[in-house]
């Protein structure tokens, strides 16, 4: 105890000194008495010294015990503080860690292990020599980590980084649970009720709709969501973020479940779903969900479109778009288009860049509509005309369409506020033949047969998109029949439209319907020259040799995926790529083909399918689009062929696996 220890002070030394002085003075007066007194004082001094030595040993022992106790307490506190502490050296390796850190990270937290192997979410090399904090996770635990650089000041000394780990797992789990519970708006529509129920009795119709409704309601109820049917065909639902993630993971099984419902006329019932996940107001989310539903319907239905902020994801879209037997919409669109054209001072028509026969043929057909209304019309061509060069030459040689074809610079000089710009065979602003003309246009019309993409021409006066049609030329041919007017279609106009249908149907082999043959029959009656069309598709010997060389280097993967490339510098590479891709899907066992080719814009890709693989979905994964059987994309000058092939194989194999399930 501290109370047992006597501390020798300066006062004691002073007293001893005075006693010795008194003994000396006494000795001068009476030396025997002085000597006796001195002996007594000396004995006292010896006793005091010995006593002081013993007390000093006790004090030192106490201090040693106290020091060791404090050190042990400090070490224990550091090792077991409820904060993980770790040190890293210049090699980015763990050199020391307390027990808490080791307990959190398990057996892997051994001296010498690379720090980057212990945590995920932060690149250690970026923070070396700095002080701050970051958040990371290790296994299933989440941490907020404060770090400090230790500089000893000596040039040759090893430097360290100290990390203090704060466990935030409970907080992160609470945040995640809160995020998963946030609401998501969904709009659901049965998109082909008229076609499915056309020949059904009232009893059969009621039973079918009841089955579909039960499937939809039970699917969303199983996700603990709210769903309300507000009309025969339409539902509104609200589910959690977690439920949406589960639906996306299962590729929206509800689409397949509804499509599998048996119908008397064998026409499958399909759903279209529009969903938005954002942090906007409820009103804004509902509006965005409606946009998503419109996009799903514009792409042909039977799919779910999910908007995740600015990102748009499509699910489903496996079944071919149903073809409506009624021509009511065609007649309505034709009359609306006639009013727009007759109110214009000029009509400028254009397709997509790198025009093919369908883009140019449909544009020529729309120019005929303007001529029927006695309005001046021109077709604006892009700079890349290799694909449609033969058709351009045929139009110019015919003499029946003098001044019809112009370029972008001429078109810009002719435009006024009353000029109508009509875009055919595309609805994506980045792909039009004359982007500057589109930007300058006040009045716009879109006519297209492709499934709607996320990017679309904004604020058109009229949009006519029919994914069920074989081609844009088929759509324009139907419009011609209901347009009216006193101008007959001439031979070159009919032939261009006929060639457009032929090229997109692969000579009437794919994507055809009754309406396709009706349109072709009408064009033949108008004088379409099949011999001229045949010459447009005729190939020279150089083309055949180049095709053979490309096919010789073709890769066949999984025995049903064909991939080939047109070498850089190949003439008419886009035409070649399309023709070879078309040919490959006619080969036994090949279900889909992909042809890479090079243009001034960089690496491009043409995709084809026999109908069992949806190449539109595959191309969308690479930033392109198209149809179920015909699609493509532009990868740009930085495009990587190997990376694109990996995406292609992943997407195709995914569809095949889903087909087996």
Give the overall pLDDT as a whole number. 83
Number of strands: 23
Largest sheet: spatial strand order = 7-8-6-9-10-11
Poorly predicted runs of 5 or more residues: 1-8
Please provide a written account of the structure:
The chain is built from 22 helices and 23 strands. Helix 15 (472-483) packs antiparallel against helix 16 (491-504). 45% of the residues lie in helices and 20% in strands. A hairpin with a 2-residue loop joins strand 10 (303-308) and strand 11 (311-316). The longest helix is centred in the N-terminal third of the chain and has 50 residues, at 31-80. The strands form four sheets. It has a six-stranded mixed sheet. A six-stranded parallel sheet has the order 14-13-12-15-16-17. It has 661 residues and is α/β, with parallel strands linked by helices.
In short:
The chain has 661 residues and is an alpha/beta fold. Helix 1 (10-29) runs antiparallel to helix 2, helix 10 (328-342) packs across helix 15 and helix 16 runs antiparallel to helix 17 (514-525).
């Amino acid at each position: 105890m501290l109370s047992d220890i006597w501390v020798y002070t300066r006062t004691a030394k002073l007293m001893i000194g005075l006693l010795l002085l008194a003994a000396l003075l006494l000795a001068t007066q009476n030396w025997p008495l002085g000597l006796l007194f001195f002996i007594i004082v000396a004995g006292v001094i010896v006793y005091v010294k010995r006593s002081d030595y013993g007390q000093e040993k006790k004090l030192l022992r106490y201090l040693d015990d106290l020091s060791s106790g404090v050190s042990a307490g400090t070490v224990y506190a550091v090792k077991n503080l409820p904060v993980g502490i770790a040190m890293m050296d210049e090699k980015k390796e763990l050199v020391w860690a307390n027990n808490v850190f080791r307990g959190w990270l398990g057996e892997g937290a051994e001296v010498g292990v690379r720090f980057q192997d212990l945590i995920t979410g932060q690149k250690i090399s970026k923070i070396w020599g700095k002080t701050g904090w970051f958040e990371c996770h290790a296994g299933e635990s989440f941490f907020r980590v404060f770090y400090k650089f230790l500089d000893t000041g000596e040039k040759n000394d090893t430097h360290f980084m100290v990390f203090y780990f704060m466990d935030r797992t409970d907080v992160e789990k609470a945040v995640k649970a809160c995020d998963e519970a946030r609401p998501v708006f969904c709009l659901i529509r049965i998109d082909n009720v008229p076609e499915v129920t056309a020949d059904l009795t009232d009893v059969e119709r009621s039973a079918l709709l009841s089955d579909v409704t039960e499937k939809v309601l039970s699917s969303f109820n199983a996700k603990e969501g709210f769903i309300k049917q507000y009309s025969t065909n339409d539902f509104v639902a609200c589910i959690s973020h977690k439920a949406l993630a589960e639906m996306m993971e299962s590729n929206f099984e509800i689409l397949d479940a509804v499509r599998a419902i048996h119908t008397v006329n064998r026409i499958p019932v399909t759903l279209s779903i529009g969903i938005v996940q954002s942090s906007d107001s409820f009103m804004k989310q509902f509006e965005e969900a409606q946009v998503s539903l419109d996009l799903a319907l514009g792409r042909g239905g039977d799919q779910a479109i999910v908007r995740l902020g600015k990102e748009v994801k499509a699910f489903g879209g496996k079944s071919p778009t149903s073809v409506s037997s009624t021509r009511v919409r065609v007649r309505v669109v034709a009359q609306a288009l006639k009013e727009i054209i007759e109110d214009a001072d000029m009509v400028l028509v254009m397709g997509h860049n790198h025009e093919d026969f369908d883009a140019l043929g449909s544009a020529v057909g729309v120019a005929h509509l303007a001529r029927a209304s006695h309005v001046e019309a021109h077709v604006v061509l892009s700079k890349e005309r290799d694909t449609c060069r033969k058709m351009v030459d045929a139009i110019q040689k015919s003499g029946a369409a003098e001044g019809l074809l112009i370029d972008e610079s001429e078109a810009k000089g002719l435009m006024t506020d009353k000029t109508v710009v009509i875009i055919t065979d595309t609805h994506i602003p980045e792909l039009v033949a004359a982007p500057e003309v589109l930007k300058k246009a006040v009045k716009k019309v879109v006519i297209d047969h492709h499934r709607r993409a996320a990017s679309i021409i904004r604020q058109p006066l009229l949009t006519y998109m029919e994914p069920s049609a074989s081609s844009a030329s088929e759509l324009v041919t139907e419009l011609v029949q209901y347009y009216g007017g006193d101008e007959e279609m001439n031979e070159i106009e009919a032939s261009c439209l006929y060639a457009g249908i032929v090229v997109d149907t692969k000579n009437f082999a794919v994507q055809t319907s009754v309406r396709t043959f009706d349109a072709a029959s009408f064009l033949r009656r108008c004088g379409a020259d099949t011999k001229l069309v045949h010459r447009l598709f005729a190939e020279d010997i150089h083309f055949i040799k180049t095709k053979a060389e490309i096919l010789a280097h073709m890769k066949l993967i999984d025995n049903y995926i064909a991939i080939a490339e047109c070498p850089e510098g190949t003439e008419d590479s886009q035409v070649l790529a399309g023709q070879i891709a078309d040919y490959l899907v006619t080969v036994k066992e090949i279900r889909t083909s992909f042809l890479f080719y090079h243009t001034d814009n960089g690496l491009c890709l043409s995709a084809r399918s026999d109908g069992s693989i949806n190449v539109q979905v595959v191309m969308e994964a690479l930033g392109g689009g198209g149809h179920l059987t015909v699609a493509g994309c532009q990868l740009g000058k930085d495009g990587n062929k190997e990376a694109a092939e990996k995406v292609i194989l992943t997407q195709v194999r995914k569809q095949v696996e889903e087909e087996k399930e």
